[in-house]
Each structure stands twice: as C-alpha cells, then as structure tokens.
Amino acid sequence: MTEAIRQGIHAGKRAGAAGLRDALGLEELIAPKVDWPHELRIFMTATCRKKERSTWRRPNRRYLHQDVVMPTLEGNSAKEIAFCRDASGSMFFDNALTKVTSEMVGIAQMMDIEKIHLIDWDGSVEYRGEFTSDTFKNAPAVKNVVGGGGTDPRCVVEYLKDNNIKPDCVVMLTDGEVNEWGNWTVPVLWAIANRNKITAPVGKTINID
C-alpha cells in the first residue's frame, strides 16, 4: 500500500503541481498544536534570535570586569532559518504533512524572520525557496509539497553545505521515521509529528502530538 501511494505521488508530481496539491489535502491548515513561544524560548535565544532591544534585566558580562554596567540586547526576530519539511511517502499518513506545515506557518507568524529557506526533502532535496515572514504564509510552495520518495535527512545536510547556506538554525519537520539523522554543524530543532514519541539523537526534539 505504501509503495502504491508513493508511485501515485510521483505520478501526480509529473502531472503537475495542481494535481499534487489536491492529493495532499493541504488546502486548509490547522491551528498549531505546539506552544512555540514556550518551546522556542531557550532554543531560539541560544541559537538564532537577532538582538534588537536594550534591556537592563541582565547586565552585559563583557564589561563587568571593567566595573562597567551596560545593558544586553534582546529581540523576537531571527535573521535566517531553514524550514526543512519531510515530504517522503510516510508523511502521507495520519495527516502528518498538514500538521508539520501548520506548525512551520505558526512559527513564521510568531517571529519576524528576515529570510526563510523552505526545503522539501525525501531521499534528496526536491525543492527550495526563499521567503520572509510576511511572504511565507501565502506562498504557493507552502501547500504544494514536492516529494514522495524515501527518507534521508542527510540530504539536507549535504544540500546546505553544497549551496553554502548557513542559517542561524534548521527546523526539521518530520514524522521521525528515519534511520540516519545526519551530522549537523548548525543548531537543529526536530519537530516530529508521530503517534509514537520519537527523540532525535542530535539537536533538540519537540513532539507535536
């Protein structure tokens, strides 16, 4: 059954984006299930938040040894994030694609991101586009998922390296049905939509369900 679905997906891909969009059923996204402000607070602060505002709540430690108290900077925006969406065959079960797509749209709405790399991947990278927080939600590529093959997150690692893409962090949106998780040189957050609780051996994991 899984193989037949994958073959059908590839047939839709060859027929055109319109047919593929209907097969995915992504016309209506759902409300995000994750409390992203809470979950991303530590992760984004440590990895990819662009500092914007001065605050005296925490003195700038670089000047304390000089007995000089200066404010630190904080903000709710990010410069560059890669949303890497699993588009393999297993994602067409249990509404997984709709779930992960809804979550990444929720992140984009919550944060002011200067550059978003949207990457669809299965056994290889099938699509990449660049957006901002403002242009991301209504971009056709958000619902027109490209993929349907096997599952290998390592293709994302190689793609980022080969194309000299250096985001502040990578958000991998997947069902976690993978064997090899890859060796990452950038901060990686796994947003996993699966009935079973799966924890990635690298980076930070958030279980959507």
Structure in words:
With 209 residues, this protein is of the alpha/beta class. It has one domain (2-44, 76-207): Rossmann fold. Helices cover 32% and strands 26% of the residues. It is built from 7 helices and 9 strands, in the order αααββββαββαααβββ. The protein has helices at residues 2-15, 17-24, 36-47, 96-110, 133-136, 140-143, 154-162, and strands at residues 49-50, 53-59, 71-74, 77-86, 112-121, 125-131, 169-174, 188-192, 204-207. The strands form 2 sheets. Strands 1, 4, 5, 6, 7, 8 and 9 form a 7-stranded mixed beta sheet that branches. α1 (2-15) packs antiparallel against α2. The two termini are 25 Å apart.
Brief characterization of the structure:
The chain is of the alpha/beta class.
Low-pLDDT runs of 5+ residues are: 17-24
Question: What structural category arises from helix and sheet content?
Answer: alpha/beta
Q: How does the major sheet shape up?
A: 7 strands, mixed
Average of per-residue pLDDT values: 79
CATH class: Alpha Beta
The number of domains: 1
- Could you tell me the strand content as a percent range? 25-35%
Architecture per CATH nomenclature, i.e. the level-2 architecture: 3-Layer(aba) Sandwich
